[in-house]
């Protein structure tokens, strides 16, 4: 799919982009990326269940809508999320009740670097995010290079 993604942070802030992810048509997940790319962290946090959790790479779990909004405001400014493809996970040991798990692969672009990322989303039956887990898909050597 040839989806055009914004190239600069100012484009992201002023022009929310419709996200298309190959293999994903779940509106909550699409809105997550659209709202984050627009810099609308409060609206992004509202996609989470009241006690929803965000698991950033190498950091403690962030729990609750207010805390997630504050974390994103502090840590995600200027990020451009470039999801590329995804799928619903058919069987998972982590699921309760009628929760649904999705895996999305893509990149995150910052002002300093671009890194491959995977996102795991668990949605409850009300289509609220129970868990959003972000994993960097880079070798230790690549991560050390980014640090310099």
Summarize this structure as a short list of keywords or feature phrases.
148 residues; alpha+beta; Nuclear Transport Factor 2, Chain: A; six-stranded mixed beta sheet; 28% helix; globular
Task: Describe, in plain words, how this protein is organized in 3D.
The chain has a six-stranded mixed β-sheet, covered by helices on one side. It is of the alpha+beta class. 28% of the residues lie in helices and 32% in strands. Mean pLDDT is 85; it is low at 1-15. It has a single domain, classed as Nuclear Transport Factor 2, Chain: A, CATH 3.10.450.50.
The domain count comes to 1
CATH architecture: Roll
User: What is the rounded Rg?
Assistant: 15 Å
CATH class: Alpha Beta
Could you tell me how far the N terminus lies from the C terminus, measured between alpha carbons in angstroms? Answer: 34 Å
What fold name goes in the CATH topology slot? Answer: Nuclear Transport Factor 2, Chain: A
- What is the element string, with H for helices and E for strands? HHHEEHEEEEH
Strand order in the largest sheet: 2-1-6-5-4-3
Mean pLDDT: 85
* Helix/sheet category: alpha+beta
């Amino acid at each position: 799919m040839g989806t055009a993604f914004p190239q600069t942070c100012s484009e992201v802030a002023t022009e929310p982009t419709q996200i298309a992810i190959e293999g994903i048509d779940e509106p909550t997940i699409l809105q997550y990326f659209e709202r984050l790319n627009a810099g609308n962290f409060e609206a992004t946090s509202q996609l989470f269940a009241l006690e929803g959790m965000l698991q950033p790479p190498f950091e403690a779990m962030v729990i609750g809508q207010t805390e997630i909004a504050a974390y994103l405001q502090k840590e995600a400014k200027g990020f451009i999320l470039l999801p590329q493809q995804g799928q619903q996970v058919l069987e998972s040991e982590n699921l309760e009740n009628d929760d649904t798990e999705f895996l999305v692969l893509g990149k995150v672009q910052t002002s300093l670097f671009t890194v491959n990322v995977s996102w795991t989303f668990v949605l409850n039956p009300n289509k609220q995010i129970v868990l959003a887990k972000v994993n960097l898909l880079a070798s230790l050597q690549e991560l050390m290079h980014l640090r310099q």
